[in-house]
Automatic annotation (TrEMBL):
The active site is at K156 (charge relay system), S231 (charge relay system), S255 (acyl-ester intermediate). Residues 94-533 form the Amidase domain. GO terms for cellular component: endomembrane system. Belongs to the amidase family. SUPFAM superfamilies: Amidase signature (AS) enzymes. This is Amidase domain-containing protein. It holds the Pfam family Amidase. PROSITE patterns: AMIDASES. Gene3D superfamilies: Amidase signature (AS) domain. It comes from the Eukaryota.
Length: 555
């Protein structure tokens, strides 16, 4: 039985939301259909599982532990590094070399950085040090003009970074080298950041395990038997492993937030339209541009806001990022789960517990009242996301089929034949990509009006609830960093992140310590549109309260 939220505090908008627990006959019929659909899907998953057990290579049972971080330069935020470099307390060359050393130390274990530019980065760092020596305007001038001067940066391989590959994990794009920078990357470089290389992603960025036939599989730095998430999994992995301090990711269903969660770092999905999505592959089509977001990923919460300000360029003014946030004056809400979706795993107990601890800490320390809510629409999160992703653009043009992006230099890919080739070890595509192409074959081209209505209702209720001063806590994922390839059998679990892409709300992923198994815990912090500063401020607070990122090599 769902529980309706009640009016809290002195909010004059007592009628801001009404969540009904009554379903009409159409809804009940749909639920019966969904149960049948879930049964079919689960049966199909069992078949895929059997195939995978028969034909997939056996993973290693031994987990490799990363060495602990010993260089103190690797334990400082990007903004603090920039200040130290400007003040000549350390040189950019020393910082860049420290990160190169760490990448060389951990990358053989986690396979996160797929192409490096170490020599060029050291040359650029030397130029930074020379610039600082010759600067006569003082540190304030450099801070204003080049806020990230001399700070190392890594970039998801799906983004264009001049001189680096831009394959998006597709074998047929093996030889594609970027001649220009994607706009957000260009803005970070113009702010003084120095790219060290590009990081792995899932094939064509549409899966939450970073594995492809071009670069191989990326591993979680806290346990190499676990996934780092996707599609920005290489970025999450190298950041979590201490081989980078700031990075660039993209997110259309959780591709920033899931890797940030699984790797114990911070990530922010901005309000859509604030940061340019140009310069990444595959390009947006249909209504995808409204859901895709480019954003910052980092180990320290204080780097999120300045990175977002830089990456947004002139659009940053829309977010009022310079306005101070008083957390005591915000209204906090918590939703502990999606209401028991038929297609999504239940939220693990440790994640329920850590979110409850956040609520208790907020109430005890800030004196706020965190109201627990439930929304019946959330149990349809996957179906809502899937329906919205299939919509045509404003000109009536549908999104480009996934199978078209899989094509090899114009040669069409046949998913069923590709599955046979995969079983014989002859396919240049992953099972996840083939599975998505097969799913497209049986999907209806007509959007289900029920899910459109569910999205419309949920959108209205959350917009009214959050307003300009509301913050919502929601699980990042139902499971803590799954083992490699297990997402093939729980393919809809990304619904916990994907729903906020189609709702267009900004979200910050925050780490909250480690589980009993030593894997990262976390929570999503959501606000109203253009209110990105609220979850960013909450992230700073939670970092202080729960410790933020942890060195995966520490005892």
């Amino acid at each position: 039985m769902c529980r309706s939220p009640v009016h809290a505090g002195n909010d004059s908008r007592g009628s801001w939301i009404s969540v009904s627990c009554q379903f009409d006959q159409f809804d009940m019929a749909l639920t019966r259909f969904e149960r049948f659909q879930a049964w079919i899907i689960r049966a199909l998953m069992r078949v895929i599982f059997a195939l995978y057990q028969l034909f997939a290579p056996r993973p290693s049972d031994r987990s490799s532990k990363l060495p602990p971080i010993t260089n103190p330069l690797l334990m400082v935020s990007g903004m603090q590094l920039a200040q130290k470099i400007r003040l000549k307390e350390v040189t950019s060359v020393e910082v860049v070399q420290a990160y190169i050393d760490r990448i060389q130390e951990v990358n053989p274990l986690i396979n996160a950085v797929v192409k490096e530019r170490f020599s060029a980065a050291l040359q650029e760092a030397a130029q930074v040090d020379k610039l600082i020596d010759e600067e006569e305007g003082g540190e304030d001038v450099l801070e204003d003009r080049l806020p990230l001067l001399g700070v190392p940066l890594t970039v998801k391989e799906a983004f264009a970074l001049q001189g680096m590959p831009n394959s998006c994990g597709l074998v047929s794009r093996r030889g594609v080298i970027s001649s220009v920078d994607a706009p957000p990357v260009s803005l970070l470089k113009r702010a003084g950041a120095i790219p060290l290389g590009v990081t792995n992603c899932s094939e064509l960025c549409m899966w939450f395990e970073s594995n492809n036939r071009l670069y191989g599989i990326t591993r979680n730095p806290y346990n190499t038997d676990r996934i780092p998430g996707g599609s920005s999994g290489g970025e999450g992995s190298i950041l979590g492993g201490g081989g980078s301090v700031i990075g660039v990711g993209s997110d259309i269903g959780g591709s920033i937030r899931m890797p940030a969660f699984f790797n114990g770092i911070f990530g922010h999905k901005p309000t859509p339209g604030i940061v340019s999505n140009d310069g990444q592959y595959p390009p947006s089509s249909g209504m995808h541009e409204d859901y895709l977001c480019t954003g910052p990923m980092c180990r320290y919460a204080e780097d999120l806001l300045p990175m977002l300000r830089i990456m947004a360029g002139p659009n940053a003014a829309k977010l009022s990022l310079s306005s101070e946030v008083d957390l005591r004056k915000l209204r906090f809400f918590s939703v502990p789960h999606d209401g028991s979706s038929l297609l999504v795993s239940p939220v693990e107990t440790e994640l329920i517990q850590i979110q409850r601890k956040v609520v208790e800490h907020l109430e005890a320390d800030l004196g706020v009242k965190v109201q627990e809510l439930s929304f019946p629409q959330l149990k349809h999160s996957y179906q809502i996301w899937d329906t919205l992703m299939a919509l045509p653009d404003k000109d009536g043009k549908p999104p480009t089929p996934f199978v078209d992006f899989m094509a090899d230099h114009g040669k069409k890919v046949w998913p069923l034949w590709e599955l046979v080739k995969w079983m014989l070890g002859m396919s240049s595509h992953t099972m996840a990509a083939i599975g998505l192409a097969l799913t497209e074959m049986v999907q209806s081209s007509k959007p289900n009006p029920f899910y459109l209505k569910q999205k419309e209702d949920l959108q209205k209720e959350l917009d009214e609830l959050l307003g300009t001063d509301g913050v919502l806590l929601y699980p990042s994922h139902p499971q803590i960093a799954p083992k490699h390839h297990h997402p093939l059998f729980t393919p809809f679990n990304f619904a916990y992140t994907g729903i906020f892409n189609v709702l267009g709300l900004p979200v910050t992923q925050c780490p909250l310590g480690l589980s009993q198994e030593g894997l990262p815990l976390g929570v999503q912090v959501i606000s109203g549109k253009l209110q990105d500063r609220l979850p960013l401020a909450t992230a700073l607070y939670l970092e202080r309260a729960f410790g933020g990122w942890r060195d995966p090599g520490s005892p």
